Amino acid sequence: MIYALILAGGKGTRLYPLSRSNHPKQFLKTINNKSFLRNTVERIKPLIPVENIYIVTNEEYFDQIKEELPEISEDNIFVEPANKETATCIGLSAVKLLKKDSEAVMVVLPSDHYIEGEIQFIQTLRQGIEIASTRRALITIGITPTRAETGYGYIQVGDRYKGDIPTFKVNRFTEKPNLEVAKDFILSGDYLWNSGMFIWKASEFLREASKYIPKLNERLMKIYQSIGQENETEVIREQYELIEGISVDYGIMQRTRKAYVIKAEFVWDDIGSFNSLKRFLKEDDNNFVSDNVYLDQSENCAIFGKEKLIIGLGIKDLVIVDGGDVLLIMDKSKDQDIKHLFNNIKDSKDYREYS
């Protein structure tokens, strides 16, 4: 059977101060007055029934998810006791689904993507499901690059595989290259962005985990044995304390020989930074602005207002974000540094309350 797994445990630190520790970006309503999480669930419903949609998240977001998605059963919310990177949260979900269904196929979706062309999106997933089921392959969805982006992973495509939508064997993954390497990738014409969307059989994912991240797999197998037992929650907590987290890209996808990539024919954006989010603002004389913003003699700025009026006079190359009790003013070139800034604020006794 086919199951959707939506990853909703991240803190969205690169959208701080809009995204906060107690209200991260998956709950933000910044595009169509629906949260990113709600949009992700509605996008997948035409393919996968609600009873087969699962969410994996942190303990602290459990109640928010129940409130945001009342149609999702509590049993379909997998809770992690700690954040130990994507290979771990996907692995926890894989063993739970495998316990339920030995033939489970997982469609793994981040909760913070923007997608246009939902018919093409569903068609892409259908093709990925067919390949994952018959080839026992690990499928990812690739995006045609539009710029030399250093915040994404890149996939070099190999030989063409069958399918109505262009599908390729993966030659190699490269995670977040520097700017010069990213420019070379764009010029070469045979690289796609790694969207972070995956399709595979739960059993195949765990088989590859046993090859490439055996210590993590050992912990997951102990969890697998406890599922449905009285001590399940206790075992999960104990094993998580022993796990050294690693991303699924570094842990498996860069190493496996079973990776295939389907080239997306729909419009995609990863709303993981203000540079991406600004594309949903109004364009105003070479600036991007929300409501309640007035600029004069200013250029190349992105201004995210809230309740108060923001006025800019003679400013250039700035990102300004009104987060209510926090106002961020940043050189636009520092977009990838916000996560580090957030961690410093969170670790400071003077400013921790603003994290």
Query: Topology as H/E string?
Result: EHEHEHEEHEEEHEHHHHEEHEEEEEEEH
Low-confidence stretches: none
Considering DSSP H and I runs of 4 or more, what fraction of the residues is helical? 25-40%
- Count of folded domains: 2
General description of the model:
- The chain is of the alpha/beta class.
- It has 2 domains: 2-269, Spore Coat Polysaccharide Biosynthesis Protein SpsA, Chain A; 274-335, no CATH class.
- 32% of the residues lie in helices and 27% in strands.
- The chain has helices at 36-44, 62-68, 86-100, 118-135, 179-188, 202-212, 214-226, 232-242, 248-253, 274-277, 338-346, and strands spanning 2-7, 53-58, 77-80, 105-110, 113-116, 138-143, 154-161, 167-174, 191-201, 259-263, 267-270, 282-284, 287-289, 293-296, 302-304, 310-313, 318-322, 327-331.
- A hairpin with a 2-residue loop joins β12 and β13.
- α3 crosses α6, α6 (202-212) crosses α7 (214-226) and α7 runs antiparallel to α8 (232-242).
- The protein starts with a strand and ends in a 9-residue tail after the last helix.
- The mean pLDDT is 95.
Describe the secondary structure blueprint for this structure.
Blueprint: E1 2-7, H1 36-44, E2 53-58, H2 62-68, E3 77-80, H3 86-100, E4 105-110, E5 113-116, H4 118-135, E6 138-143, E7 154-161, E8 167-174, H5 179-188, E9 191-201, H6 202-212, H7 214-226, H8 232-242, H9 248-253, E10 259-263, E11 267-270, H10 274-277, E12 282-284, E13 287-289, E14 293-296, E15 302-304, E16 310-313, E17 318-322, E18 327-331, H11 338-346
Parallel strand pairs: 1-2, 1-4, 2-3, 6-10, 13-15, 14-16, 15-17
Antiparallel strand pairs: 4-9, 5-11, 6-9, 7-8, 7-9, 8-10, 12-13, 17-18
Helix pairs in contact: 3-6, 3-7, 6-7, 7-8
